[in-house]
Amino acid sequence: MVVRRIEQVASRRLAVKFADSNDHAAADAASADAPNADPPVLVSDGGTDRPTPTRTTETLLNPNPLTDLEEVQLLDTTLRDGEQMPGVSLTPADKVDVARELDAAGVHVIEAGSACTSEGEREGIRRVARGGLDATVTSFARGVRSDIDRALDCGVDGVNLVVPASDKHVETKVGSSREEVVETTVELVEYAKEHDLWVEVLGEDGSRADLEYLERLMGAGLDAGADRVCYCDTVGAAGPERTAEVVSRLADLGPTSLHTHDDLGFGVTNVHAGLKAGADTVHGTVLGVGERAGNVALEEVAIALDRCYDVETIEVERLYRLCRRVSEVTGVAVPPNKAVCGANAFAHESGIHTDGTLKDGTMYEPYPPETVGRERRLVLGKHAGRAGVAAALADHGVDVDEDELREVVSRVKELGDRGKRVTDADLLAITEDVQGRERDRHVELVDLSATSGGNLPTASVRLRVGDEERVASGTGSGPVDAGLEAVRAALADESGGVDAVSFELDSYHVDAITGGTDAVVTVAVDLSRGDRSVSVSASDADITRASVVAMVDALDRLSELGDGEGGDGESADGTSTSTPVGSADD
Ligand SMILES: CC(C)C(=O)C(=O)O
């Protein structure tokens, strides 16, 4: 996989010889034999007899009709419903961290947890409530007074009071009757209001409730002083029509929120149906974490409202950062094709898409990646075309002529055909081979030992750095972490092209190639310094060794790239870079 930032590419692609030559005809002819290569030009730019467009470029980029949605508020329940996801458990510190990110993004209400759960949970809620946030901080409370008392103990601003709404919940789950539930709801709302709490009444399983009864129950809650009610599609069973039917009836009673789940894949659709039907607040979780198929993803709601309907909810530029933080604390991996925050949400590989994207960044994107705090990436694989490969090489400051480029493209495709990710290191190694160049490595791993038993995982590395050998050790949360610390320590006093301290590990990904405990693993890392980034992978039966080899190789490759200012193949301190050679896994 080759990762690049496209702005650099645009300014540096002229370094590629065929582009310099301006010989487009030759370039087109050369690409014609490759099915996924960059397409030939099919229409001319010229012509004066086109009709005058009636829509502006901006409206054409957003083809959606504006609706009469005005203000929509977001209630985040990552720290409560999201945390109910099997395997997810947040410490008080994690909760505070995520709450701060949510608050910085401008989320209106943060449901910090469920005060009845445990002492640790209450401590987390307490710390969020006392964190001086702008958001309204609430606790989930079941329909019992003691839950409201526990929420009060935590110092929250409000409660999300859940009461059973469907007969299944009223009769089978809580063994009660409709009348009794209405009475209890009224008492609890009055109790919470007497204690100055903001109150939202949630009718659990409301999408499967008898509508007349749901109206009676929610109406009673509002009459008792609740600030709002919430339509809950607890098991994600409703479609947009049912959502609109129920929500329009509730919204006639008072302010209405939406709480939708994604079991049928209707999470976001139902939010839009519910907003059109009169709701004004959306519950969601970051990344859609939550029970079963999860809740509606907050970031998807925010970006869709922003882009399609011009409705601003929270600061969308903070969405990616927020998603990464939640992924880190929950341990939930983000699928690469996830909207907004997936690794591929703004990545382009096929020759046709890459070529179009290099001509106009918005060609294959509904909105620019910067909108949500991200960057566009061009990735090489078996669908690569000449323009993408040429731009990637230009980004690495490597000049190729047309014949060399053709050969590099063909070898990149071969590698992709073998099911391999094509990293920057792969691309550079291929190019070096095609050009008959030898790489003079600046940093190389000579030896590694790591121990993971005991309390403190430790690793020692022996590196060759230029002409000298260096030995260093490090400790970390595990042997991989310790190995990387040891590498940093070995390079800490480096004054030349490699300064391990100023690099960022942007992503670290492990794949087991075979299934057993003796599996060979491939570790892929993306490393960056300033606006330079490089992707490298390494394979080994030992995960620590694969990780450290990949890291060292990435550091070495980055030292060749310099600081991104010059693009002339000089390293950060202006010395000549070494000649590129092979990747760690080839
Ligand atoms: C009870 C509520 C709000 C809930 O989590 C759900 O319906 O999924």
From TrEMBL:
Composition-biased stretches (Acidic residues): 562-571
Record domain Pyruvate carboxyltransferase: where: 72-320
Domain of life according to the entry: Archaea
Keywords, alphabetical: Amino-acid biosynthesis, Branched-chain amino acid biosynthesis, Transferase
Biased composition (Low complexity): 27-36, 49-59
Alphabetized GO MF terms: 2-isopropylmalate synthase activity
GO annotation, biological process: L-leucine biosynthetic process
Region entry Disordered, spans: 27-59, 559-586
One Pfam family named in its UniProt record: HCS_D2
Family named by the database record: Belongs to the alpha-IPM synthase/homocitrate synthase family.
Name of this protein: 2-isopropylmalate synthase
